[in-house]
Amino acid sequence: VPAGALGGRTVLVTAGPTVEPIDAVRYISNYSSGKMGYSIAEAAAAQGARVVLVSGPVALPAPEGVEVVPVKTARDMLAAASSVFPAADVAVFAAAVADLRPANPADRKLKKGRDDAALANVSLTENPDILATLAAGKRPDQYVVGFAAETNDVLMNAHAKLKKKHADMIVANQVGDGLAFGTDDDEVWLVTADDEVLLPLMSKRDVARRLIEVVARHLSRPGA
Ligand code: PMT
């Protein structure tokens, strides 16, 4: 693809974990470092796109030329992503969103001794699915990429997620054994309705560059 292939385009990226408070000092979260999503934002900006990166709490600097919207919970992430999505030509959902959150977070610190029952019985409730919610209302001119982190049956689960979440592509990575979460490198499949392409183990920055190339090529097709 030519340099600047995403000039004039807007790209929305979600990245990092979400954190879901239990009380004033405790939370539920996961091991996402944000490296994958930040690399995608960087690669899209390098191709000339306007990039909005909605990010859970991570320890990474903002990529050059990228607008970062920091969020904490899945519900914050949905609100921030929803306000950008209508303007986006491309949306890439790389965040590891907590599927569940504590139903009744305490706004003070729960104390051992006094709040033992509350600490031992944190009841959970389902978070909104950001990708599924937004992709369900996507226009034909918008291209939506989801991720799938799987421990087994990677391709089968990726095809199921592609349909269920209304995505145009799923980037599927195997997790476990020190893979995917927190690493610098990743091996992924790019899964669409009629294609499966393996990107062998490479840096997340290279995965991101390859993904952005494929997306840019798709957008430049006649009729796309
Ligand atoms: O951040 P890193 O350390 O670099 O790690 C990268 C990564 C492993 C987090 C990334 O490559 C990845 O796989 N991200 C998705 C992880 C995940 O939560 O997968 P999932 O199978 O649970 O979710 C599937 C898709 O739905 C994802 O696009 C996810 O962003 C989206 N989703 C899921 C749940 C939810 N409530 N809202 C969502 O939008």
UniProtKB/TrEMBL annotation:
In the C-terminal section; belongs to the PPC synthetase family. In the N-terminal section; belongs to the HFCD (homo-oligomeric flavin containing Cys decarboxylase) superfamily. The gene is coaBC. Residues 11-224 are annotated as: Phosphopantothenate--cysteine ligase. Residues 7-217 form the DNA/pantothenate metabolism flavoprotein C-terminal domain. This is Coenzyme A biosynthesis bifunctional protein CoaBC. Catalyzes two sequential steps in the biosynthesis of coenzyme A. In the first step cysteine is conjugated to 4'-phosphopantothenate to form 4-phosphopantothenoylcysteine. In the second step the latter compound is decarboxylated to form 4'-phosphopantotheine. CTP binds at D99, K109, P128, D129, I130, L131, F147, K161, K165.
